[in-house]
Write a structure and sequence with these properties.
disordered N terminus, two-stranded antiparallel sheet, mainly alpha, 19 helices, single chain
Length: 345
């Protein structure tokens, strides 16, 4: 659907791969072979409130009991794997943990608000890892740039993000009270993304735990680096083929846009004028120049040190090292800002 790194599959996304395989396999087993155990995974908030079955806040929010929800959430997790590649597995896991805990709290608040305001008792909500999935739509909307793929009827733009939103709407309409879970997930995603009450510092994965899982689980769920050529197997399903073609199309559009930008620069005989994109940096630099002229004793500040890991990620997207360095320095090492401006200009 979209790949900002240019790599297909689950390369450098072991956590996303584990979330695809383990809950999906358990959901299928519960639906086909162990139906008598499904009651243990029902997300029953009435039982949590009245009978203090706190364990349902964990079991009821891990495995989907509806196979349609399993399919849609798995596709969304696969497409959201870009955030694990961009931020690293530990930060991605921290976001999932924080949004998972916060969405459970907001579920309880929303259910109580609905009962108090409208007299409607929503005792059972859809089960599964749905809160963090909806929470991931917040960074997806804010940080993933839109790339137009085509137009419908000459007026409606189809972008690389359109199919993801359609999947989200499909998941949103799959159950009666799933909108409660979706609302809780979106609020949790906004709270964690905007660092409300510094929840990102409280609800995070400790470094020692990240290393433990890296040593034990990452070798199991890690994927090999894909080849440069995107191959579509003859035995693949239509959905997988369409998804792989969309990923390849996104990469080609990104590279063609960058090549067009480079051709324009060569025709004008100059490089990217980053000050045009970052006026506040230009004003700051002009102020520094004036201050330097007033005082001959002032020493020029050393150049900003750029993270080689972020440079490597931008180079994986097809950008040159020179442009990656300039973009990161101009954006103060902000990978999201650097990526957006490299894609859009």
């Amino acid at each position: 659907m979209f790949t900002s790194t240019g790599s297909s599959g689950l390369y450098k996304a072991p956590l996303s791969k584990s979330l695809l395989l383990v809950p999906s396999a358990l959901s299928i087993l519960l639906a086909l072979l162990f139906q008598h155990y499904q009651n243990f995974f029902v997300y029953n908030l009435q039982a949590v409130k009245n009978d203090l079955q706190i364990w349902r806040l964990i079991c009821g929010r891990i495995i989907c009991l509806d196979l349609k929800d399993t399919f849609c959430s798995s596709l969304l997790i696969y497409n959201f794997r870009i955030f694990e590649r961009r931020y690293g597995s530990r930060k991605f896991a921290s976001f999932l943990l924080g949004s998972w805990i916060l969405s459970a709290l907001f579920d309880l608040i929303l259910v109580e608000a609905i009962q108090y305001s409208f007299g409607i008792t929503a005792s059972t909500l859809p089960s599964g890892f749905l809160g963090p999935v909806f929470a991931l739509f917040v960074p997806f909307y804010c940080s993933i740039p839109r790339v137009q793929v085509t137009q419908f009827l000459g007026q409606f733009s189809i972008t690389n993000k359109t199919l993801i939103y359609i999947l989200g709407l499909q998941l949103l309409t799959s159950g009666t009270y799933i909108w409660v879970v979706a609302t809780s997930g979106l609020i949790a995603g906004m709270c964690y993304t905007n660092s409300v009450l510094k929840v990102h510092q409280v609800l995070c994965i400790p470094r020692w735990m990240a290393k433990l899982f890296s040593w034990t689980l990452e070798p199991i769920f890690s994927s090999s680096e894909p080849t440069n050529e995107a191959r579509i197997g003859m035995g693949a399903t239509v959905d997988i083929q369409r998804q792989q073609r969309m990923e390849l199309l996104d990469r080609q559009l990104m590279l063609s846009q960058f090549a067009h930008m480079r051709r324009q620069q060569q025709q004008q005989g100059r490089r990217i004028n980053w000050n045009r994109f970052f006026p506040h940096i230009r004003q700051r630099r002009n102020a520094n120049v004036r201050a330097f002229r007033l005082s001959e004793q002032e020493v020029a500040a050393p150049p900003l040190e750029v993270s080689e890991e972020q440079v490597a990620r931008l180079m994986e997207m097809g950008f040159s090292r020179v442009d990656a360095l300039e973009a990161l320095r101009a954006s103060n090492n902000d990978l999201n800002v650097a990526t957006n401006f490299l894609l859009q200009h």
